[in-house]
Write a structure and sequence with these properties.
heterotrimer, A mainly alpha (141), B alpha+beta (249), C mainly alpha (117), B: Ubiquitin-like (UB roll), Fumarate Reductase Iron-sulfur Protein, Chain B, domain 2, 2 domains, two-stranded antiparallel ribbon, C: 117 residues, mainly alpha, 3 helical TM bundles of succinate and fumarate reductases
């Protein structure tokens, strides 16, 4: 069996069949596809957050003046606008991630699948709790 | 005659046309008529040359899948009255991403080859003799794969999957869901044989979880879920062989 | 045995990064990028943050956050370029740029946090 060539896994060209090409802009054609691409684009904003975080760590390490300059940079209207867009995308990422969680992980308990709503609900509750903990550490001054 | 509704149907004749074109037909709008009834009306009363596949008219044979207003649908379960208020013709096209042979008929050998490649049947390392009786299964064991076994191979999920459209080597939603149907079956012992096919880029890793396959599935199979769940299985297997190479098969 | 692919490792990093990003980045970004600079909530003092980041556990947390979030980005962005722009012929280049960027960022994060004064 192993010597045999595996069967071709795509349809070969046939002169009489009509095969339209997929447009480069396929994701603009339907709302679910656009939503998908926006979800994937959210990763760029995740990376931008890491950049801001690394700049903050560097400024902290360099001393109070450097940190004051970093804080002024954060107040630049363009940066604020960018961070506002980033917040939209990271929240979008979080909601899509939690909503798809039950589909990606079929958790079974006592022989039955745990209801989707319970998994999603647990995720959102954990999100709220973790956000509060992070805020608690950062907000005390 | 009662009210009518217009259908814009894609026509393509491989002998005559270089490009397909749309032809508009007016059909009676009846409350209990589905798109397939309208196509049969056209074929019987208006234009006998219109070509399309259908068989059971009750959503189980999986042969009447088409694009209706750009959405993959079983035409036997899509009511004309849903489109009556839109004041524009209902657009009927062949399933997206498959080569068109004629009019609304698409070529599906590609799927058949892929389906076969994932070995969608019970694999036993050693068959027990018939005299030993059946392989028994509890309701809980049945429940683990039952959802995936509902697939009728209608290929709506392929027509909804941009990854398949962009990269035709992708094995695709239904074939992977059907592989999972057997992987999850307590009577099956072929999971590692299927992994050779599934755990490749053309298998599960090509999927980016667009999730549309699950939304269009008329049988609620959830192929997107099957693929993501298998990604986790394949990852765990990969780490196992990395940590315990002696246990690798 | 199928040939051992790296895909499961990259996917595991992508998923872990996705979980991490979903749970903690929104609150971090809301505070750091909007609430503090715009004065909605009083910003923490330099000394408070310095003391916080000097704790090894904080630095470990920040390192893991950067590492996983960057690999999450690398994986998703790579597939977005494949699908969204149909530039499959640039596969290798995209692969190197995405994961190379993630590795560079991770090393940078490690350097900054390790040498934090």
């Amino acid at each position: 069996m192993s010597d045999e060539r595996p069967p071709t896994r795509y349809t070969e060209y046939h002169p009489r069949w009509y095969r339209p090409r997929v447009s480069t802009w396929w994701w603009l054609a339907r709302w679910p596809y656009l939503k998908f691409i926006l979800r994937e684009i959210s990763s760029v904003f995740v990376a931008w957050f890491v950049v801001v975080l690394l700049l903050q760590i560097r400024a902290l390490s360099r001393g109070p003046e450097a940190y004051a300059a970093f804080e002024r940079w954060l107040q630049n209207p363009l940066i604020v606008l960018l961070n506002l867009i980033t917040l939209f995308f990271v929240v979008f990422h979080a909601t899509t991630w939690f909503n798809l969680a039950p589909s990606a992980m079929a958790i079974r308990f006592g022989g039955k699948r745990v209801p989707d709503l319970l998994i999603v609900g647990t995720n959102y509750a954990a999100w709220a709790a973790i956000s509060l903990v992070v805020a608690w550490f950062l907000v005390r001054s | 005659m009662a009210e009518t509704i217009s259908l814009e149907v894609l026509r393509y004749s491989p002998e005559r046309d270089a490009e397909p074109s749309f032809q508009t037909y007016d059909v009676p709008l009846r409350k209990d008529w589905v798109v397939l009834d309208a196509l049969n009306y056209i074929k019987d009363k208006v234009d006998g040359s219109l070509t399309f596949r259908w068989s059971c008219r009750m959503g189980i044979c999986g042969s009447c899948g088409m694009m209706v207003n750009g959405e993959p649908k079983l035409t036997c379960a899509t009511f004309l009255s849903n489109y009556a208020n839109e004041n524009k013709p209902v657009r009927v096209q062949p399933l997206r991403y498959f080569p068109v042979i004629r009019d609304l008929v698409v070529e599906v050998t590609d799927f058949m080859t892929k389906l076969q490649s994932v070995k969608p049947w019970l694999i036993r390392e050693k068959e027990k003799p018939v005299s030993d009786g059946e392989y028994l299964q509890t309701p809980d064991q049945l429940d683990r794969y039952k959802q995936f076994s509902m697939c009728i191979n209608c290929l709506l999920c392929y027509a909804a999957c941009p990854v398949y459209g962009l990269d035709p080597v992708f094995i695709g939603p239904a074939a992977i869901a059907l592989a999972q149907r057997y992987n999850m079956d307590s009577r099956d012992e072929g999971a590692h044989e299927r992994m050779d096919v599934l755990a490749q880029h053309e298998g599960i890793w090509g999927c980016t979880f667009v999730g549309e396959c699950t939304k269009v599935c008329p049988k609620h199979v959830d192929p997107a879920g099957a693929i993501q769940q298998y990604k986790l299985t394949a990852t765990i297997e990969r780490f196992k062989t990395f940590l315990m190479p002696w246990a690798a098969r | 045995m199928a040939k051992q692919s790296n895909e499961p490792v990259l996917w595991a990093l992508f998923s872990a990064g996705g979980v991490m990003a979903a749970f903690v980045i929104p609150v971090h970004l809301f505070l750091l990028g909007l609430a503090f600079p715009l004065g909605w909530i009083p910003a923490p003092s330099y000394e408070h943050l310095l003391a916080l980041v000097r704790l090894p556990i904080t630095r470990l947390y920040l390192f893991v956050l950067c590492f996983l979030a960057l690999f999450h980005w690398a994986h998703r962005f790579r597939y977005t370029l494949y699908d969204g722009l149909q530039i499959k012929h640039l596969n290798e280049l995209i692969f190197v740029c995405c994961y190379g960027g993630a590795i560079f960022g991770t090393v940078l994060a490690g350097y900054l946090l390790w040498n934090f004064r």
